[in-house]
Design goal:
Layout (H helix, E strand, L loop, with lengths): L7 H13 L4 H8 L3 H13 L16 H11 L3 E5 L7 H19 L4 E5 L3 H6 L12 E5 L16 H12 L2 E2 L11 H7 L3 H4 L1 H5 L4 E7 L7 H4 L5 H9 L2 E5 L2 E4 L8 H4 L7 H5 L3 E5 L6 H9 L5 E5 H10 L1
Parallel strand pairs: 1-9, 2-3, 2-5, 3-4, 5-8, 8-9
Antiparallel strand pairs: 5-6, 6-7
Helix pairs in contact: 1-3, 4-16, 15-16
Family: Belongs to the SorC transcriptional regulatory family.
Keywords: DNA-binding, Transcription, Transcription regulation
Organism: Anaerostipes hominis (ex Liu et al. 2021)
Length: 324
């Protein structure tokens, strides 16, 4: 004899009343003359048999799972995180969305006793000022990836790496160290001599302990990189780099669309900071950048292996796939 709970018609009716008519289980019991246990079992069978299919929609952001997977596969990324972008979004709105996504990702992956490297720039400063809180109580240490002494300021806000390390420590409740050196020297020889001093070369011990780094990605045009605003590079020098094929800079190193830094050694070798080899050995290397205008810069950064986790927006992501 067929049991009541095996009656497909009754299972459908029970599910329809519950999910479509918003009836309570008690009301269904009274309507159909069934016990509470039978109704509960029929609702479960409705899900198991595919009569009921539940779809959960994320109300906060659009789902770019497929696009993220394409980026990960195409560029060999550990992870890609994409936020929504619209043509009418202001630069500030785009920055806010990227910064919040970066903060959320960091909140998820940071562990107790982590050493975290940070670069300079407006992007990282925005991350440190998002309207969110981190209260996991992890012991963290933030380390500037290169020197940060300059006479200039961007938008009246200090966005050099030493200051960013302080701001991240304040935001995430950790400690910080300072790299008391210019970011760029007049020559490689002067830099090498300076970094032999015990008062500054201690920073390399911290570099060796880094598990996570966070960096912005600049583009070689006025307003697109903090290097000009902070006095590390003149606009004429930047123009020459563009003519040589530069598409961006990350962690103060310029590179071309293939991710090759060698053509820009005249500048890159004067950087006082973490080396390219050290950087590529760090487990989690996060790059944060968005906007269609930064697509080539991000492609080059990914190809250089400076980053293996990308946080970007949908416009930049789609354009990146067209670039290759």
């Amino acid at each position: 004899m067929k049991k009541i709970v095996d009656d497909d018609r009754l299972i459908y009716k029970c599910c329809n009343l519950y999910y479509m008519k918003n009836k309570t289980q008690v009301e269904i019991c009274n309507t159909l003359g069934l016990s509470r246990a039978t109704v509960s079992r029929m609702l479960a069978l409705g899900r198991e048999q595919g009569i009921v299919k539940i779809e959960v929609i994320n109300p906060i952001s659009y789902d770019y799972g497929e696009l993220e997977q394409k980026l990960e596969q195409r560029f060999g990324l550990k992870e890609a995180i994409i936020v929504e972008s619209e043509p009418l979004d202001t630069k500030e709105e785009q920055m806010d969305m990227l910064s919040e996504a970066a903060f959320d990702y960091l909140s998820h992956i940071l562990k107790n006793d982590d050493y975290v490297g940070v670069t300079m720039g407006r992007t990282l400063s925005h991350i440190a000022h998002v309207d969110k809180f981190y209260n996991k109580g992890n012991k963290l240490l933030f380390v500037p990836l290169y020197g940060g002494i300059s006479q200039k300021r961007t938008e009246k806000r200090d966005v050099q790496s030493n200051r960013i390390a302080v701001e991240f420590a304040e935001k995430f409740g950790g400690d910080y160290v300072q790299f008391l050196s210019p970011g760029i020297f007049s020559s490689k020889e002067v830099k090498d001599i300076f970094l032999q001093e015990d008062t500054v070369n201690y920073i390399y011990e911290y570099f060796s302990k880094l598990r996570v780094v966070v960096m912005g990605i600049g583009i070689p045009e006025a307003g697109g990189t903090a290097l000009v605003a902070e006095g590390y590079l003149t606009e004429n020098e930047l123009k020459n780099f563009v003519e040589m094929g530069a598409v961006g800079d990350a962690s103060l190193y310029f590179y071309n669309i293939e991710g090759n830094t060698k053509p820009f050694d005249s500048f890159n070798q004067r950087v006082a900071g973490i080396s390219q080899e050290q950087l590529k050995n760090i487990e989690i290397r996060i790059g944060v950048a968005g906007g269609i205008e930064k697509s080539k810069s991000v492609v080059g950064a990914v190809r250089s292996k400076n980053i293996n986790v990308l946080i970007t927006d949908s416009e930049c992501a789609r354009q990146m796939l067209k670039e290759v």
